[in-house]
Design a protein that fits this description.
Structural class: alpha/beta
Strand content: 15-25%
Radius of gyration: 16 Å
Family: Belongs to the ribulose-phosphate 3-epimerase family.
CATH topology: TIM Barrel
Shape: globular
Strand order of the largest sheet: 1-8-7-6-5-4-3-2
Bound molecules: ribulose-5-phosphate
Number of domains: 1
Function: Catalyzes the reversible epimerization of D-ribulose 5-phosphate to D-xylulose 5-phosphate.
Cofactor: Mn(2+); Zn(2+); a divalent metal cation; Co(2+)
CATH architecture: Alpha-Beta Barrel
Distance between the termini: 8 Å
Number of helices: 8
EC number: 5.1.3.1
Keywords: Calvin cycle, Carbohydrate metabolism, Cobalt, Isomerase, Manganese, Metal-binding, Zinc
Length: 221
C-alpha cells in the first residue's frame, strides 16, 4: 500500500506568524513542511533562507523539505542542512555538476532530490538515479503560489513513476503546483505519493478540513 504524504508549502502561510502557522498545519495533519527558497535570479521572486528554516525547526517534528529555486546551488546546501532541513531538492539546470550537488546534500546528512519544471526533461535522471531520494515534478512554472495545475504534468509523473519502479529503490515522488482537493487523486493515480499544496491549504481557515478532504480523495487508492 502506498504511503501518501501531504506537504503544505509555507509560501502561502502568514509569514508574520510563521511558527504558529507551521505548528497549526502539522496539528492539522501535515506530514512534511515544504519550504520554498527563491532567489530572484533563478526564479523571479524572493523568499526566505536558512535563518528562517532554523527559526521554524523547533516548532515542528515532521521533516522539512527544502525546495531550492536558486542558482548557484552548492554554496547554500550546507547552510540549509545546518538549519535543520531533512530533504533538499534543486533544479538540475541550476547546477553545473548535478551529481556533485546530489552528493553534497547527502554528505550533509539530508535526503537529496531533483526538481523538474514543466519543460525540463526527466533524462537528467539517467545517470544519477542511485543518488536521488526524491523526484519533484513541478505542475506549474516555479516562482509563485496560486497558479493553475498544468495537466501535462500527469504524463511526466507517470514516466517518473515508471523510472522509480524500474530502479527498485524507495524514492519519493512529489508533485508541486496547483494541487487542490479536486485534482490530488489524478496526481496520485498517475503515481505521485507526496503532494505539495500552498494556497489550497493556507488559503482556507480550516487546515484540517482541507487535509482531511485531500486524504479522503486518496483513501480508495
Ligand atoms: O514551488 C512553488 C512555486 O514555485 C510552490 O510550492 C507551489 O506553487 C505551491 O503553491 P500552490 O499550491 O498555491 O500552487
Amino acid at each position: 500500500m502506498t504511503t501518501f504524504r501531504i506537504a503544505p508549502s509555507i509560501l502561502s502561510a502568514d509569514f508574520a506568524r510563521l511558527g504558529e502557522e507551521v505548528r497549526n498545519v502539522v496539528a492539522a495533519g501535515a506530514d512534511i513542511i515544504h519550504f520554498d527558497v527563491m532567489d530572484n535570479h533563478y526564479v523571479p521572486n524572493l523568499t526566505v533562507g536558512p535563518l528562517v528554516c532554523q527559526a521554524i525547526r523547533p516548532h515542528v517534528q515532521v521533516p522539512i523539505d527544502v525546495h531550492l529555486m536558486v542558482k548557484p546551488v552548492d554554496r547554500i546546501i550546507p547552510d540549509f542542512a545546518k538549519a535543520g532541513a531533512n530533504i533538499i531538492t534543486f533544479h538540475p539546470e541550476a547546477s553545473d555538476h548535478v551529481d556533485r550537488s546530489l552528493q553534497l546534500i547527502r554528505d550533509n546528512g539530508c535526503k537529496a532530490g531533483l526538481v523538474f519544471n514543466p519543460a525540463t526533461p526527466l533524462s537528467y535522471l539517467d545517470h544519477v538515479m542511485d543518488k536521488v531520494d526524491m523526484i519533484l515534478i513541478m505542475s506549474v512554472n516555479p516562482g509563485f503560489g496560486g497558479q493553475s495545475f498544468i495537466p501535462q504534468a500527469l504524463k511526466k509523473i507517470a514516466e517518473a513513476r515508471r523510472r522509480i519502479d524500474e530502479s527498485g529503490r524507495d524514492i519519493m515522488l512529489e508533485v508541486d503546483g496547483g494541487i487542490k482537493i479536486d485534482n490530488i487523486k489524478a496526481a496520485a493515480e498517475a503515481g505521485a505519493d507526496t503532494f505539495v499544496a500552498g494556497s489550497a491549504i493556507f488559503g482556507q481557515p480550516d487546515y484540517k478540513a482541507v487535509i482531511d478532504a485531500m486524504r479522503g480523495q486518496l483513501a480508495s487508492l
